[in-house]
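Request: Give me one sample?
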Amino acid sequence: MEAVWKEVKAAIRERIPGHSFRMWIEPIKSHQDENGCLVLACPNCFSKKRVQENYGSIIESELKKSLGKVCDLTIVVSRQNGNGKQKAIRETFQLSLPDMNVRPHSGRLLRKDFTFDFFVVGGNNDFAYSASLALASRKNSMQNTLFLLSQTGMGKSHLTQAIGHQILSQFPGERVFYMTAEDFSNEMVQAFRHDAIDKFKKKYRNGCDVLLLEDVHYLSGKERTQVELAMTLDSLFEADKKIIFSSCYRPAEIPGLNDKLRSRLSLSLISNIEPPNFRTRARILNRKATMKGLKVPEKVIHYLASELTEDIRQLESGLIGVTAKASLLGSPIDLSLAESVVKNIVRQRETITIDAIKKLVCKYYGISVNDIVSRSRKQKVVRPRQVAMYLARKYTDSPLQAIGRSFNRYHATALHAIGKIEKGLKENGAVQKQVEFFRQKLQAGKF
């Protein structure tokens, strides 16, 4: 049976992604019981459940091909017997599940759950998923650059980090750099200030094999950074390195971008991620509930999927809200509880307008609507204007150009303002408290 299992494993390797094979199939050990049945021993309960649910039919199919007949198959969790023999087997192939975020060679940590295994594929993102997996697995040697395009909360960061995870697991010697465009810019500025620009250039041009660069639209107007990045990209292109960009805007739509950098970004394979449909949203909720060990009735899953349609983050917020409220109140998770949570999440887009946002912000900052659209650069006016632009982008469907015009500004200025507020939100300071106040007002319809 050992020879049969080796043959089956070889066949399965050709049918599933490499990272999935290494994580779930490779650790399995096999033996034959006293009745001549094949027994597959998984390292733990989680592994057994995953193999049964996702690969059971594939294993049975390949076994039938190999033996020419249907074979009785049992999947078990390896356990210690009286003489300790099974314990030795268990220790040899215990599956090493990730329990912490992964540190790439440079930049930010990769989230442990942002892998291809945990990414839910649907019609909205199947091309982006396939392109990302092919690049990470080196299945398409002709394409080394990828540009992931979507609005916030659609999964482009998940795919970007999944590429990093896949490359580090399959090619551990690769030097993977993961960061945002703002990180790159700040690092370059610090290099200039400390007379270390040559070291900075050498790091990226000679010491990087895979560059994962998120939010490239934040380079808008940063001419010096754009020049340096363009030259770095030239070096990486010539050395046949892997480069993955992500942004909310196509290269042609990013304002304040020089032609050289724009052309480099446009050379990438641009993969758009659309909002998920109902079926995909339901699968996302089920996957996240399983990952968190939550038991949510199917009716509630379907209700959340039908009502929370904006993005994946909103779906997760609804799921967490429902389970948290049920736990705190000691009540069952049902439709009435879900409805009470959803009504506080769903945004009233049909009534939230840019003008309504202007009036709300001006009221609480103590300035007039004329002030907020004026050319004034006083701080007491600039901050409210930036907050209002950010809220307009988040709570309305207006394009960047329309938001800029509404505040008597160019779209590049609007993009800069939104970036300033997003940066402030990460610092957990006054900006976060102010924006959260306005969010609560808008979501409650009190404007």
User: Anything to note?
Assistant: Residues 106-272 form a domain with the Rossmann fold fold (CATH 3.40.50.300). Confidence is low (pLDDT under 50) at residues 80-99.
